[in-house]
Amino acid sequence: MTDFQDRDDRDASALPRRTAARTAKLASLPLGIAGRAVGGWGRRLTGQSAKDVNAALSAKAAEQLFEVLGTLKGGAMKFGQTLSVFEAAVPDEMAAPYRDALTRLQSAAPPMSGKQAQRVLAEQLGRSWRDRFREFDDEPTAAASIGQVHRGVWHDGRQVAVKVQYPGADEALRSDLRQLQRFSRLFQALLPGTEVKPLLAELAARMDEELDYRGEAESQRAFAKAFAGDEHVLIPKVIASAPKALVTEWVSGTPLSKIISGGDTATRNEVGALLAEFHYSSPARVGLLHSDPHPGNFLLVEDGRLAVIDFGAVARLPHGIPHHLGEMTRLALDGRSEELMQLLREAGFVRPGTELEAEDVLAYLAPFTQPLATERFHFTRKWMQQQAMRVGDTRGRDFRIGRSLNLPPEYLMIHRVTAGSTGILCQLGAEIPVRAIVEKWQPGFTEEDD
């Protein structure tokens, strides 16, 4: 037995379960940020430059963000992982420390002890669970928001990944999301241009799906069947599942986080195109949309395929992406403001009685269609920052228009996942033929679809 396995079950790495303790840790984030801001004003008064002071404050806030959200796991870490794909929208002068801290949240968290993991597996797979494996590594290979992954060899010789849910994850997830919603306005300042409050509301609404690994297994089986034999995408097959344990085929590859930080241009472009194809094609091919787009869930395998893991969050789209969405995108791209406005009203994006000028709405939406205006588009952090600043400027027209528009519930998840996938493309700096991909998979985008 290793030192890791021999540690007492009360080890500090275990998931903190007491609500009061978790609340105090979460409360320390906004309080710490506010306290450092006050200290920063004092240092400016003593002659230090605003730039130097802001850089120091950002670095400390980012380190605290990782330490608190990462250590708590549960909803706190899930929130941090979801935020991580939007760091491309943060202005460069303050982004670097957050980029590092949030990227670490994508695939790392303090693990639970070996004894705890074994206890969960015995409860979920039966007392003789070890007999189902030729080998099982008690030390986890990865630890994330509500569970950790162990490597093993199934009884038939297949290499497998074993996902084990943390004891108390359900209690921690619910508690964290309640507390984070209380602090949503303060967290908004960390990532300007990101809608924190509805993001937290969506995470809370999908909590039960995340916690039930049987539902995740069902979704993963559907994706694996639809993409079986695909030349570009690899979905590991499910081998066994239980409410709090999941066994799937093991896949090895280069995490997207490494490609983002050090990949060459050709690899970035290749991965970006694969990611976009997977995102836009899944609703048509599977009737589902993978709804947890952060780099920790994607790997580039040796044969050039994009491996996709973690299907705990999916949007059910049995009829694919709505036809109206493709039509609206095309009308905005073509500058047909009156037709666009009429369709927006019909589809519920403009509430009855709301008075808006068609040209103003077009001016708000058209920049989002810019990637589709040319054969290839170069997704960059600068472009995403411009969009975030444009719609997040409370003094600007676009902010007012954006607040006047309505996002129907059936479009909420599609919007958030598309924004997250776009964030990864901007992190990659990928230049890809996204228009051709959208033309192929998005109903309503081409005139022929009408």
Automatic annotation (TrEMBL):
This is AarF/ABC1/UbiB kinase family protein. GO terms for molecular function: ATP binding; protein kinase activity. CDD domains: ABC1_ADCK3. The keyword Kinase applies. InterPro entries: ABC1_dom, ADCK3_dom, Atypical_kinase_ADCK, Kinase-like_dom_sf, Prot_kinase_dom. Pfam families: ABC1. Keywords: ATP-binding, Kinase, Nucleotide-binding, Transferase. Belongs to the protein kinase superfamily. ADCK protein kinase family.
